[in-house]
Amino acid sequence: MPLNPFDLPDPMLRQMIRTMSPAALRRQLIQMADTLGDEAFGARMAREIVKRTRPDQAIPDTYARYRSLVRDGIEFFLSQISRRRMLDLVISQLAMDADTCCQERLLALAQRFPTLHKLGQLIARHPDIDPAVRGWLINLENGLYGTNPDELAVRIHAELGSTGKGANVHVTPTILAEASVGAVIPFHWQPSPDGSLQHGVFKVLRPGIRRHLNEELGILGKTAVFFHDHRTRYPLKDFRFLEIFEDVREMMIHEIDLAAEQRLLGEAGHFYADMPDIRIPRRLPLSTSAMTAMDHLDGPKLLDADLTGPQRKRMADLLFTAVVLNPLFSKYNSSLFHGDPHAGNILAVFTDESTDPAIGLVDWSLAGHLARSDRVETVHLIQALLKNDLTGMCDAIRSLAMGGSQSTPTPRKYLRDLISGWMHEPANKRLPLVKQTFRLLESLSMEGLVFPADLMLFRKAIFTLEGVLHDLWPAFDMDAAIACHLMALVQQEFPLRLVNLLFPLADRPEKYTSLISNQDLQFLIAHQSINALFASSHRLMGPLMGWNRAIGVAWCPG
């Protein structure tokens, strides 16, 4: 039986690593794999890697009950990978110093697997994750992971050569940014002999990503089935493993579909055309199905920009409006939103036109669309939460759940009990309204309710953005921002609202960009629920009082 390096005491193992070349170590491991067979070798090495990376130690006591779930998940996932990738992983872990901390080992492991890389990023972006966990997982964001830029430049030139467009293109073999599946390389080109020099970037997939991802997506499905079949072992007994892992699978498929991202860039440019302070990279004609050529939005991450306090506040308002409010209260039947607004995808673009930077939104590989019907029900839910109207909450949630193709509607009493229990948690009542809305949907999804996939992606985008907003302007008030935005919309809708007072049957929420009907607005005012929403927006009370007189409702601001 060939020697298993992991069986050696650490001093002997370190000595072996120092004296044995990587090629010799690989031969030793190949002999072991040949003797055991791939399945047994994979299971054995997966156990050894888990022992060496020590995920239990990386998880703080706050999440102690999830340690077995994380440990078993990593072990099962690794046990299914190909022999070649397992050999590379084992050699890389053995090459690390014996005293390397568990967090660093886990990061090195995750960076080898796009799906684990993405899962780590999603966990780091959750606003309520323990700061100690976020502190080391955040290193998965926009790092440089050792991809050879010269290799990428060769691939780009080959792709350009196949299209006959590469004559005036100069590629700089430098990686500007690198993520779980792609890398960004700068270039400059002259579109015509008498034209000016233009600067752009190519986004290309990292070498081997499609092959690796094809393998991992299959393994991800098996991992979901493993957890589903053994759910009683873990604290999340009702957690929808199959659906959640399918969401991650869909997310990764979107990230490697460069042609789809190119279409989304064009759509985003149109969607934000009336917001000159929001910049979207423009797709360039050098793009192919295998790479995206686009404008280079030159500037630091917004969080890293040298801004004054007032500028940071204005940027927070602008960012929340662009990423959350405009999609939620859009004039379009289907509104586009950025599905991954983490700090690395939000740039400060300085120009000569203003002392304030524009905000650049990059990486549109993950985006979604909100149907008007789902937005109407979401706003209904926000109103019901504002009024503490349990019946209204149930109605909105049942409509959204059925919109998510739930085959059997949740019994009303059971749903009321779930919502009531959630509402009785003091911490939940203290959340901003938008966050409260989507936290409730998140909680109900853990109980088996199924909501539209893009609506739940929008939820993730809001939670991701919340962390950016906090770092940008800690005092940012989501409720106040919503209040200002809604009041501006209501004022714009005033002529239509007056007409619809005469035609009540036409007074439906979907007729208004604000998604609030006259009847809804009247009810909010009459029950003084609107005081809570507009408490920080006193300058907007005047228009409301005028509207109050128009509809004849007695209302005295409290």
TrEMBL record:
Q: Which domain of life is it from?
A: Bacteria
Pfam families for the chain:
ABC1
Designated name of the protein: 2-octaprenylphenol hydroxylase
Tell me which SUPFAM superfamilies the record gives: Protein kinase-like (PK-like) (SSF56112)
Q: Which organism is it from?
A: Desulfosarcina ovata subsp. sediminis
The record's InterPro entries line, in alphabetical order, gives: ABC1_dom, Kinase-like_dom_sf, UbiB_kinase
Tell me which family the UniProt entry assigns to this protein.
Belongs to the protein kinase superfamily. ADCK protein kinase family.
Every copy of the ABC1 atypical kinase-like domain together lies at: 159-393
